[in-house]
Amino acid sequence: MGKTVIGPAAGVLARRIAEQLRAAGIENAAQDARVLVAHFAGVTLTELVAGADRSIDAVTAEHVLAAAERAAAGEPLFRILGRRAFYRVELELTPETLDPRPDTEILVDRIIPHARRITASCGSCNLLDLGTGTGAIALAVLKEVDGATALGVDISAGAVEAANANACSNGLEKRFRAVVSDWFSDVNEIFHIIVSNPPYISASEYASLPENVRHFDPKSALLGGVDGLAAYRSIAASAAGYLHAEGLVGVEIGYSQHEAVCDVFEQHGFRHFESASDLAGHDRVLLFRR
Questions:
Q1: What percentage of the chain has pLDDT greater than the value 70?
Q2: Which is it for strands 243-252 and 191-196: parallel, antiparallel or unpaired?
Q3: What is the pLDDT of residues 210-256, one digit of tens each?
């Protein structure tokens, strides 16, 4: 067996990469550099800082430097890592899935109390996650609400595969399954809660999105038609037929879409009863009942 070739110290490598990312105009360059080194070295950030003088083998260092090149070229950090923590679950990302943003955790926050209430009164809570992607919303709710179950649907077979894999890796495969479906087309159940973070970017907004979004998130998970409302129209038109009488629908929306999305749902017999804002103060989540 050959000897392991010793590379640079972890701290030195992290500082080198931070300078590279900073020169490329990457925000949070120092933090991203530490995350990359820790990930490929197989240690936590705390362990990395504590062992900053510890050498990293040359092969691992080459992997880190290659990843740093991708980051400097604009590839999002979590795409490079291939994973993201979301709420209390760890999610594998694939090219077919949207990288779930922290704003979507606001929807999870609003759904959890309702799921707990329904589970307590009915003995169970069945949830439908439309456009499930990685399974983020459904899996996060299931992690917090014992007794809840969920079906995730997505038009992308690759996303469905990723969602089912994420359910397994988080120990939730007995309460979650994902299937290929164009919204409700292959859904044959009734649910207590329907949730979705649908594509809601308008055609004009899509053209002006940052390159690191347009190039790495699937277009089908972002573009919501000419005005950004196509998905809401599809959901609102059919949701009532898949809801229990006291069921609810929760959706994430774009920062300026509150009134327009409410109008879409009200046209189909729903009433808006709850909202939640993001950190910028924009409405980000809307909940509806029939």
A1: 98
A2: parallel
A3: 988 999 999 999 999 999 999 999 999 999 999 999 999 999 999 99
Note the pLDDT tens digit of each residue in 29-80.
Answer: 999 999 999 999 988 889 888 887 888 898 999 999 999 999 999 999 999 9
* CB distance 241 to 249 below 8 Å: no
Residue 198 lies in a domain: yes
pLDDT in tens, 95-132: 999 999 999 999 999 999 999 999 999 999 999 999 99
What tokens does 174 get?
A: 């007995």
> What pLDDT sits at residue 212?
86
Token match 């994430």: residue? 252
For the chain, what is the domain count? 2
Report the run of H or E that residue 137 belongs to, with start and end: helix 136-144
Using the 3D structure, point to which of 37, 55, 81 is the last residue of a domain.
81
Rounded distance between C-alpha atoms, residue 46 and residue 48, angstroms: 5
One domain for residues 144 and 255 = yes
- Pair 163, 133: CB distance under 8 Å: yes
Residue 115 covered by a domain? yes
Is residue 89, in this structure, part of any structural domain at all? no
Nearest to 29 by CA among 60, 65, 63, 71: 71
Residues 195 and 237 both lie in one domain: yes
CB 276 within 8 A of CB 110: yes
Q: How far apart are CA 215 and CA 95, in angstroms?
A: 10
Extract the tokens encoding 282: 């924009």
Tally of CA atoms within 13 A in the half-sphere of 134 that contains its CB: 28
What residues contact 121, with CB distance under 8 A and at least 6 apart? none
